[in-house]
Amino acid sequence: ATDIHLGYLEKDPVRGNDTFVTFNEILEQAQKNEVDFVLLGGDLFHDNKPSRKTIHSCLESLRKYCMGDRPIHFEILSDQAVNFQYSKFPWVNYQDGNLNISIPIFSIHGNHDDPTGADALCALDILSCAGLVNHFGRSASVEKIDISPILLRKGGTKIALYGLGAIPDERLYRMFVNKQVTMLRPKEDEDSWFNLFVIHQNRSKHGATNYIPEQFLDDFINLVVWGHEHECKIAPVPNEQQNFYVSQPGSAVVTSLSPGEAVKKHIGLLHVKGKKMKMHKIALETVRTFYMEDVVLADHPDLFNPDNPKVTQAIQAFCMEKVEMMLDNAERERLGNPRQPEKPLIRLRVDYTGGFEPFSIFRFSQKYVDKVANPKDIIHFFRRREQKAKNGSNINFGDLVSRPVSDGMTLRVEDLVKQYFQTAEKKVQLSLLTERGMGEAVQEFVDKEEKDAIEELVKFQLEKTQRFLKERHIDAVEEKIDEEVRKFRECRRKNAEEEDEEVREAMTRARAHRSEDAVLVSASSDEELMDTGAKASGDSDDDLPATVTRGRGRGRGRARGARGQNSTVRGSSRRGRGNTSQESATSSRTYKSVPAKNKSIMDGRPVCIQNLFLVWGLFACFTFVTFFPFRGNKH
Amino acid sequence: ATDIHLGYLEKDPVRGNDTFVTFNEILEQAQKNEVDFVLLGGDLFHDNKPSRKTIHSCLESLRKYCMGDRPIHFEILSDQAVNFQYSKFPWVNYQDGNLNISIPIFSIHGNHDDPTGADALCALDILSCAGLVNHFGRSASVEKIDISPILLRKGGTKIALYGLGAIPDERLYRMFVNKQVTMLRPKEDEDSWFNLFVIHQNRSKHGATNYIPEQFLDDFINLVVWGHEHECKIAPVPNEQQNFYVSQPGSAVVTSLSPGEAVKKHIGLLHVKGKKMKMHKIALETVRTFYMEDVVLADHPDLFNPDNPKVTQAIQAFCMEKVEMMLDNAERERLGNPRQPEKPLIRLRVDYTGGFEPFSIFRFSQKYVDKVANPKDIIHFFRRREQKAKNGSNINFGDLVSRPVSDGMTLRVEDLVKQYFQTAEKKVQLSLLTERGMGEAVQEFVDKEEKDAIEELVKFQLEKTQRFLKERHIDAVEEKIDEEVRKFRECRRKNAEEEDEEVREAMTRARAHRSEDAVLVSASSDEELMDTGAKASGDSDDDLPATVTRGRGRGRGRARGARGQNSTVRGSSRRGRGNTSQESATSSRTYKSVPAKNKSIMDGRPVCIQNLFLVWGLFACFTFVTFFPFRGNKH
After folding, report:
1. Which parts pass through the membrane (chains A, B) (predicted)?
2. Is residue B48 assigned to a domain?
3. Which of A40, A199, A387, B248 has a CA that sits 20 to 30 A from residue A343's CA?
4. pLDDT digits (tens, 9 = 90+) for B303-347
5. Are B258 and B243 in contact (CB under 8 A)?
């Protein structure tokens, strides 16, 4: 399964518990089907910093369904200290002598619950520290990624499980292009492995480099489980070019009222035997039904005439009829399934192009408060192209708040910030900080609730400017400072790529600045691995969609000896000695201690204070925005 | 131990890890001394919503030190479904077949980590849900409390462990006065129990009813472990009147630079045998040393003459000497203890009454950046009474921010809000909401990070006013509304007690409004218990401070049969069946399902929007305040 988004709309009185209920259903299915393990494709949590309630509910479900006496029938052959190198307990949870795990969960992180902040922790790390989830597929470097698989064996079947937690699409795209993504392969019997890869990225093209083309992925892979995309396309689809299959489970909850989310939600039960696989779809019963329909008013000239004074009532009656029909369908569907929530999600998209006027959504909604889970946004009015672009106009927050969120409108905080400064009066324009940097920082503040993001950016850009001034000895000439600061800022702004780099560096360095913790540098794993060509002999079966033969070795794969035996040893010696064993388990790695830098007290001139106040003003605006159901349609 | 305040100053580059290090030391001591269990007196966390890093570090420590194969030698005789009735897993963690616990922790919550929000969860509940802490001593009612002990037995020794998590002092004071606090007692062999009570309240008088006098506590108690107070007074002190002993462990970290915190920090190893006890003090080695000294300039007329132009330099040199002396002492102490952090905390309080001028703290601080953990607030200047009261003056936030926090100044957000509106111009004064309500809501927002507190209050007071208007049919007469709203508001404000009730109701009801969860009502426990008089025959020993004889039964204690046997049964049947056993374990309780109320869409007039904007303005201010190290000196 993937994209469970625990905590999505958790405060909604109707939909608040949806994600928790469905998560329980998924784990219940896992238990019922006696799976060997659960594989999650990221975004288990909707928020980067999940609420206490969400973490609590999640822990409750995991402890309830994933602990128990049912024995685990597979073993791990890879070096777990490498697989789980970012965990404080770098071994699989079911081998921990202190935890009685019946269903191990393996999960990568998604873009919603990715590592952030000075400590670079993510919500999954709390679960992994509690011993209830095995978080894997993390990569520390932003330039180069080596993906080391978890090697699993059950009887004669061996699975190499590769994972890659969410990374900004553009960055990963660039790394692929620059051949900086390497999938390590087991040295012995390279072709006896079923290679399973789980990834959480855009699969559909959102821009030139804002997605990951399937062609980028290695062709020795047998099955890709693709997270992040919410539409359920769980039946494995062959990629003819690369000879692998792609299964896209889709989200377990409807987070946007778009067509893709109206597709029935499923999870998959994957059987692997040798190199054959079979995916069994399981429909989720607790997911709130979502019905959606489109109406183009201009397509009904017989019914609607824009000049008719009563046309609005006619349109309203027509829409009501459509909604009622969807409600009937939903009710019929629900009767066959007692686990389905009572009130469905309903969305009617009304194209009112052609001189029509939209009617009051408010009154319309009130009629459906008791019948529909999303009464406030049942109707979505839109017009085609003829609508004029609204660039450059002032932002009226009151206006934004009262307007319902629509699918088409993806409100990016970053853009708001830019717009704000572009249209602002001279005296409140930025003179030292850049709009771009401020935008990213505010975005991080809002999206990830990183309280320090803005402070960190201000400090970084201020220090950078101070350094510039000092190097040029301009800081001595009081009158020239303002002028030089402006020049310096302009020259950075003009070079888009440089600014991009700068902003990224700012966010990263600022975090590192703060951290006194030892930074973990993985240095050993690569040395033990050797380059090797890959050769495979295929296997096909009528019943099972077989993974296909290929003989082409790319020389990218690398090999390694199985080192699994020590895991048993570790398991027993650890009993009751958690503190010492942790050290021994990680002894093969190198720690590099980054000493804390004493932050020098700012030799700040009033200019920075002025900018700071501007930032806090922005805080007020965006705090305001985030307190309303206004998160746009992020997946 | 108590008041570990995990996460206190976690972002401070020097002191950030102090609380985590000391928590590990405490658990290490528990392990080394092979304790039966750890008892914590609240405020394990400093923040009501601890950061990801704090929760992660805490889980790490607990899993490392409290899990393992060492067997547990005591059993629980009481009904665990009552003791842990608010837990999703209402049994002690070491009896859970899926967890291998070597050191069970029992903890009440403090005022810092108390349950808040619609879900009424607290940070400890996350640990308890993960199976790493046994959270007890919770009470749902705000009017009446029955404290049901956890009954423990090891060999011939039986301990009745009573706990009461933090409750606002005034409220608990009132409940005690109204005889609404009942400590339930075991029916059989009532006097064979060692009665241990852990509480987290003000012990020293902070106002008429703003503390809990020891005399309020039942005299059948043998030992009170008193949390919340940070000064270490761990050696049990007899209360002559009530015949019990009080041990005040004090905090494990210095959170304010006041004299009480300069007392050496300890934890206690409590031995109980029959009804005798012995407390062994263990000094904490990882706590940052804190040296403090007071200087009264006027006491040195030979050294300082206010009229001398160089007096400021002389004072500065004098202070520097004092600081150096403290640093020498700290260094000497540290040499004997390699675990002590390098940089000590230093505080020099300088009374400059008598016409002296304080020197620049900023420059002074810079000299000690590399030597002292709190360079910015080493010196604290103060003057005695002659200082004029500053009431009614405008708040200058810039001023507040640049001034270091001083001991004497406890900045309450609530008071700031009141002050803000009192001094505000007419047009931004409140016309519908009350200052008091707004103050409490903002306080909750800041202290507990309850994002919804303000929204909830606004909604509550708005609805209340609307109801009032509707009942009087004033809502039809547009012109009269403003006038009536003002009157209604004034009449509520004048009655302080009524307003107090209203604000409390607002916060509680608003929370309940939101919650769709079933509310748990404990109804069964009392019925099984009977009133009984208490009789005891004392016991004394030279070595051990004995608990003293008493024959006076208050008739307040109640009795119950031991029901412990089922715990073993539950423990084994639960293995691997977490989901079903939870239901059976709680079957003796009554659930009352509170149906969610559909929030009606506001028939709001613009007035509320105006107020809302005012609130968001406040947000900006207080967000601003909280982002600086400005939390006052809350314990």
Report:
1. 612-630
2. yes
3. A40
4. 888 788 888 899 999 999 999 999 999 999 988 888 999 999 999
5. no
A504: tokens are: 């990224």
Cα separation, B538 vs B549, in Å, equals 4
For residues A546 and A321, give the distance between their C-alpha atoms in angstroms, rounded to a whole number: 48
Chain A within 8 Å of B451 (Cβ-Cβ)? yes
- The angle formed by the CA atoms of residues A274, A279 and A284, to the nearest 5 degrees, is 145
**CB atoms B596 and A126 under 8 Å:** no
Please state, in angstroms and rounded to a whole number, the distance separating the CA atoms of residues A502 and B357: 46
Nearest-by-CA chain B residue for A88: B60
Which of B23, B34, B126 should be substituted to probe chain A, the one whose Cβ sees the most A Cβ atoms within 10 Å? B126
Q: Is the pLDDT of residue A377 over 60?
A: yes
Beta-ladder partners of B591? B520
Q: Are residues A184 and A76 in the same domain?
A: yes
A307 & A277 share domain: no
> Contact at 8 Å (CB) between B318 and B351?
no
- Supply the DSSP string of B563-611, one letter for each residue: --THHHHHHHHHTT-HHHHHHHHTTTSEEE--PPPPPPPP---HHHHHH
As a whole number, mean pLDDT of residues B175-179 equals: 94
Tokens for A522, please give them.
Answer: 């993985």
Domain of A343?
Answer: 290-372+374-402
Q: A599 to chain B: nearest residue by CA?
A: B13
Q: Rounded to 5 degrees, what angle do the CA atoms B467, B472, B477 make?
A: 100
Integer Cα distance of A308 and B13 in angstroms:
71
Do B181 and B193 belong to one domain? Answer: yes
User: How many domains does the structure of chain B reveal?
Assistant: 3
Q: Do A611 and A499 share a domain, yes or no?
A: yes
For residue A164, the distance in angstroms to the closest alpha carbon of chain B comes to 22
Give the start-end residues of each E strand in B148-193: 150-154, 157-164, 181-183
Residue A232 has φ and ψ, to the nearest 5°, of -75, 110
CA A68 to CA A473: how far, in whole Å? 69
Please check whether residues A322 and A243 belong to one and the same domain. no
B429 and B446 inside one domain: yes
Share of chain B above pLDDT 90, in %: 51
**Residues A27 and A147 grouped into a single domain:** yes
For the four alpha carbons of A545, A546, A547 and A550, in that order, the dihedral sign comes to negative
What is the enclosing helix (H) or strand (E) of A64?
helix A52-66
Residue B57 within any structural domain of the chain: yes
SS3 A450: coil
Q: What is the ipTM of this complex?
A: 0.73
Residue B223 lies in a domain: yes
